[in-house]
Each structure stands twice: as structure tokens, then as C-alpha cells.
TrEMBL record:
This is Class I SAM-dependent methyltransferase. It comes from the Bacteria. Pfam families: Methyltransf_25. The keyword Magnesium does not apply. InterPro entries: Methyltransf_25, SAM-dependent_MTases_sf, TPMT. One of its GO terms (biological process) is methylation. Signal peptide: none annotated.
Amino acid sequence: MPEPQEDPDVVSRRIAHESLSQDDPTGWFDRLYSAAEDGGAVVPWDRGTAHPMLTEWIDESHPDGTGKTALIVGAGTGWDAELIADLGYETTAFDISPTAVQAAHRNHPDSKAQYVTADLLAPPAEWHRAYDLVVEIYTVQALPIDLQPAAIKQVGEQVAPGGTLLVIAASRPDDVPDSDVEGPPWPLTRAAIKSFATPDLRLIQLDQSPSPVDPTIFRWRAEYLRD
């Protein structure tokens, strides 16, 4: 009989903790994607399709990307980026993992999106306030809590004047202390999701809904608009 496969969440946490123990809090992403390429792991968030909450937002908002630019944060293997590119946006999709970017190119050989390797914590200067739409799904929550404020700031800094930021993340109650959260992921409190907002990047809609897979797990969908 084949040996039972280990829980993908357990595998990803072990790989993350190995990186953290080496003072490399972002290196685990490429280690995980590389392990998945070799068949030794599964990327828990790689759904093989765009995130349903992104699809729902598009169905409700009907964004038109004609003549506009979009940035997909932590694009992974590219499914969210493909959906946004199909709306007409000139789409840049990045991930810190070169293996993920290679997989995106392989999965979408005729893509209209541009896939690049980049670090959210130190993005290219030319991206600053350059995008009409920025989409962040599950990237900030995959970083240790002490890195999240810097990551949140960088996500917002890429939104152009008049542009939109869409954030989708797992949520946790504000009264759950950081020390009780064994990540990854490290879900975002209400205070954390609101901290994407700045004086000129306004939170215009915030929804919290249960996961269809596990109704005890809740997720944020937040939309912001830069003046």
C-alpha cells in the first residue's frame, strides 16, 4: 500500500520553520515550490484556478482594465494574474520564488501577463504608485507577524492615484494574541486589515465571510481607493 501523504499545511509549516530558524523568513516560499515540483510537497494555496473571492469581486465590480495597469502580489503559479490580464489590464505578476515564476510561465505559455521575480519587502522603485489595480491575496499573512507592517506598507505604496487595492486574507479575532498563532499562515486581525489604509488610501469596503470549506475559518475581502 502507498504511504499516506503528509498534510500539506504541516509540510509547509515545517519548511517555513526551517527557514525562520536560519533567519530567512521569506526563503521558505521557493523551498516549498521546489519541493512541490519534486513531488515532495503540495502548495496549500495553489488552487489551479483564480481565488473565488477575486472572481466574486470581479462579478460584482465589473472592472474594465482597458488602458490600465495591474500588479499581482505573490502571484504564485499565476491563476489570479491570468484572470486580471483577461480583463484587459497590462498585468505585472511577481513572486519572490523563482520556481513559482517558472511554473507560471509553464502553466500559461501564451499569457498576456508579465511574470517576474521580486521581493515585496524591497520592490523595484519604478513600481511605486504605478498601478491602477493592486491585488494582494494571502501574501502578507504568509509572512511572520513582525514583518507584516512593512509588507502592508509596500503593498499600498504600489497603488497609483485613483487606483484600487484589493486584499483577500484569512482573519483572526483581535483578542487572539500573536504568541498563540502558529503559522504559516499568520491570519490578519481587523486592526491589521485596516492598517492598509493611509490618509490618501481609503478603505471603502470591508467584508468578512466564512470559508466554504471550513465555516469556522473566516476571511477578509477589503477594497481601498487612492485619492
